[in-house]
Amino acid sequence: MSATPFVFSVLILQLLFASQPCHRFLAAAADGRWQLLQKSIGVSAMHMQLLRNDRVVVFDRTDFGPSKLPLPNGKCRNDPSDTALKVDCTAHSVEYDVLTNTFRPLMVQTDVWCSSGAIMPNGNLVQTGGFNDGEQRVRTFSPCSTCDWQETPNGLAAKRWYASNHILPDGRQIVVGGRRQFNYEFVPKTITANTFSLPFLSQTSERGVENNLYPFVFLNVDGNLFIFANNRAILLDYMKNKVVKTYPTIPGGDPRSYPSTGSAILLPLKNLKAAAIQAEVLVCGGAPKRSYVQAVRGKFIGALNTCARIKITDPNPQWVMETMPLARVMGDMILLPNGNVLLINGAGSGTAGWELGRNPVLNPVLYKPDNKIGTRFETQNPTTVPRLYHSTAALLRDGRVLVGGSNPHAFYNLTGVLFPTELSLEAFSPAYLDTKFNNIRPTITAPKSMSGIKYGTKLTVRVVITGKVAKNQVSVTMVAPAFNTHSFSMNQRLLVLGNDKVAALGKATYDIDVTTPRSGNLAPSGFYLLFVVHQGIPSKGIWVKLQ
């Protein structure tokens, strides 16, 4: 595609987008629909985390100068270390209220650029690292209507930029890697050694390119960590600092990690009462070898159009390759309440990095992991907003996916560039939210939201379903809210509790008995979204605390 017609098409899309008022639906519901929530929140959403009060914390970076959102009441951030603005009276973080479609400015004190985080068992967001004066900071955000960021200097033992975090069964976070950090550590700090060497990270780092930042980290069902970087993975016993399994390289050997950024998820965990529970990881997209070097020189190579799937619990695991309908780099993968996967955002060529992506992929794609190979992908309706480098996405309690960000520039460039800095928020509604499914859509009436649930016990969920019920197609799922940045949703996890029994109580009311996960290896303690899914159509979620 030549540059001139492409620029023209992007301008047309932007004009169409700008003419739409907030909450206007842009596409039919049959294959998903798009909704503009906010034309501008003043901050580009580089990082995103849903909290238990249905608010989403969004933040960018502090070292590009002023944002488009002033801090309230004359507040200013005084930071002699900031490389762009020593006194800054604008916000670089926002709290978005999903229920009211409003937002308020927040204040971070140090640079959070390309950082990481996760929700702790108490529901607080604990976020780590960043750039410059923020690289060893630990920050905490508590879910309340007036709360703001609190920072702990030297909360990290090492400088962490482009690291990945995961919640552990004991309630701590593990922080893995980062630029020139071939090790891991724990938050809060332990009384033992502060950092633990992980040679795998140096072995997967390519000179001058890296291609192993923001490693994909998942808690396996045996309590060990699956860690993927570049084009291969290991299983790590992090307590003993021992690699217990080495997985084969993805066929073809192309990189999938930043800046050749693909995405990855742990597929839904099922059959949770079985003696041996199977776990699978899916890695999709990325960029071919040398794409980053070529993009820096102005040549933008087409993104990878493959996904690789592996049963990480198998004694002899092998990658199985699948072909996506659309090639994608810098895409996000979001677990939906019914167990399907949404691939969204990204580019069709180039890599992550300043000005290095081209050909925005406007169509999301649905991946149905239980279908036969060759029938798993379904292309969805497109957005009109390119979401390239530094885009984000997060599942909301009502089943929509919040989408924001895209800033492929070192500063906020809103005009005169191919892909302007994007300050808007959108929501993508999968087809399961169409009103034609309302008669089979469950409505949860018990337990109440914020109820506590115990490990390995019976839980009864009461629902109302007005239409005909297929009891063998009723299932309860639990989803952990993920920290999303740079095409990776950290701590993302979905557990299929299924149903032990469905009892009709009359007046379209049903009790569903399920058994909760038996251990923290399956589901670390903390807050989860609980859904009831009927014939593939999910209810709105409720918050529960597993403890």
UniProtKB/TrEMBL annotation:
Query: What are the record keywords, sorted?
Result: Oxidoreductase, Secreted, Signal
Signal sequence residues: 1-18
Q: Which protein, by its recorded name, is this?
A: Aldehyde oxidase GLOX
Residues annotated as domain Glyoxal oxidase N-terminal? 46-432
Pfam families xref list: Glyoxal_oxid_N, GO-like_E_set
Keyword Chaperone included in the entry's annotation: no
Taking the record's annotation, the residue ranges forming a coiled coil are: none
Q: Where is the Galactose oxidase-like Early set domain?
A: 441-545
Q: Where in the cell is it found?
A: Secreted
Q: Name one GO molecular function term.
A: oxidoreductase activity
User: What's a single GO CC term here?
Assistant: extracellular space
Question: Does the entry feature the keyword Oxidoreductase, yes or no?
Answer: yes
Q: Which superkingdom heads the taxonomic lineage of this protein's source?
A: Eukaryota
**Cited InterPro entries:** Gal_Oxase/kelch_b-propeller, Gal_Oxidase_central_sf, Glyoxal_oxidase_N, GO-like_E_set, Ig-like_fold, Ig_E-set
